[in-house]
Design brief:
Blueprint lengths: L1 H20 L4 E9 L2 E8 L4 H18 L9 H14 L4 H37 L1 E3 H43 L2 H22 L4
Antiparallel strand pairs: 1-2, 1-3
Helix pairs in contact: 1-2, 1-4, 2-3, 2-4, 3-4, 4-5, 5-6
Amino acid sequence: MKQQRFIVAVHEVGHGLASMMVCRPTQALTVTEMNGSVRGGANMTDAHGEDSAIVDLGGIAAEQLVVGSGDCHAGASTDIKNARQSLRDDRVPEHQIEVIMQNIHRELITIFERDWLPGIVYTATKLAQVGVLEWDGFVELMAQGQRRAFLAGSLQKAANLLATHDTLHKSIQRLRKAGPSEFEALASAVKSELRPQRRALRGGK
């Protein structure tokens, strides 16, 4: 049940984030249990046309990105139906609707993964625990998740830098003590030792 609450929370956070992207704030996100099943809700302000489709598809995109599936949440089929109807209401030609929905889905996953993944996971974890988030709380948790990820990344880079500095200092001492015959072999060994740390400082590249 705990895992299911998290999956539903990820889905609802996806709706909330998509609504933020189109400037249609969500009033509240909820995760509730009823008769042994977990249900989610996103009480959103009115959106129309493509904006509405983006919000509708945000939950599926977040779920697919974080959990690896976009159809295990009971509301997914309803979201797809609503997105399709929103585009129809916006007078989008029938033959273009599926293409537009696929493009929206891909773009949402790209943006969520590139810019918001730590915030999504952090906020969904909190939503699964507390069951309801008002809009202000949702925005604050998203920001906290992003900040925590940034600080963790900065600390890791600092640790890599210190490790590289320490290795370099020790290597210089070894090279100073080396005789002419062993200098070349020792220098090559030093390069090998430093290579993984230099790669880590460049972000693994």
